[in-house]
Design brief:
- Helix content is 64%, strand content 0%.
- By secondary structure, it is mostly helical.
- The longest helix is centred in the middle third of the chain and has 24 residues.
- The two termini are 29 Å apart.
C-alpha cells in the first residue's frame, strides 16, 4: 500500500531509468553516438522535473508513439520530452471532449481506491479486470512500481500486462484479441514457473 507521500511525489530519476529500461527492448541503439546512458538518464530526469506530474505520467504513451517511427536509434531526452508534451495535450483534448459529451453516462469508478485497497492477486489482475484505457496513467505507473518491487518485473513486463485489452493491430477481431490475451497470460504463467 502507498502512503500519501509516495502517491504525491514522483521519483524522476527512477522514471527516467524506467523509460530507458523500456526502450532497451524497443531499439537497437539506446543512445546516440557520443552519448553516455547515465548522462541521458540524468538529463531526462532533470527535464521531467520541469513538467507537471500528470504530464510525466504520460511517458509510456509517448514511448508507444515514438516507437511507430521504426528507428534503430532510441529517441534523445529532448525528443522524449516533446513526445510526452504531445501525448499530454492529446489526453487533455480527449478529456475536454468527453466533458462536453452528454451522451456518455458511464458510472464513475474510483480506480485509485480500487488499487490502494487491492490485495496482491487483485493487483496482479488489475489490467485484466480493468481496461488500460479507462485507468488513469498514474495508476499504470503505480502498477509498474509495485510489480518491480514485489515481483521483480521489468518495465516491459508491466507494460505487457497493461496492454492486455489493447488491440494487437488496428482491425483486430475477437479471435486475434483472444490470441493476444492468451499469449500474455502464457508468458506470465511460464515466468512464474521458471520457464
Amino acid at each position: 500500500m502507498y502512503t500519501n507521500d509516495e502517491v504525491q511525489k514522483l521519483n524522476y530519476s527512477f522514471i527516467a531509468s524506467e523509460i530507458y529500461e523500456h526502450m532497451r527492448y524497443e531499439y537497437k541503439f539506446l543512445t546516440h553516438k557520443g552519448m553516455q546512458l547515465e548522462k541521458c538518464i540524468s538529463t531526462l530526469s532533470k527535464k521531467l522535473q520541469r513538467l507537471p506530474d500528470y504530464k510525466v505520467l504520460c511517458w509510456s504513451l509517448a514511448l508507444d508513439e515514438l516507437a511507430k517511427n521504426h528507428s534503430d536509434n532510441a529517441p534523445t531526452p529532448v525528443e522524449i520530452i516533446r513526445a510526452i508534451e504531445v501525448q499530454s495535450r492529446h489526453l487533455n483534448t480527449v478529456r475536454s471532449e468527453r466533458a462536453d459529451d452528454t451522451k456518455e453516462d458511464k458510472p464513475f469508478i474510483n480506480y485509485e481506491h480500487l488499487w490502494i485497497n487491492a490485495d496482491d492477486k487483485e493487483k496482479f489482475r488489475f489490467f485484466i479486470d480493468h481496461k488500460f484505457s479507462d485507468v488513469p496513467p498514474y495508476i499504470r505507473y503505480w502498477f509498474g512500481q509495485y510489480n518491480s518491487k514485489h515481483r521483480g518485473w521489468s518495465a516491459y513486463e508491466s507494460s505487457l500486462m497493461i496492454s492486455y485489452w489493447k488491440l494487437p493491430f488496428k482491425t483486430a477481431q475477437s479471435g486475434a484479441m483472444a490470441t493476444h490475451q492468451y499469449q500474455i497470460l502464457d508468458y506470465f504463467r511460464e515466468r512464474k514457473h521458471g520457464g
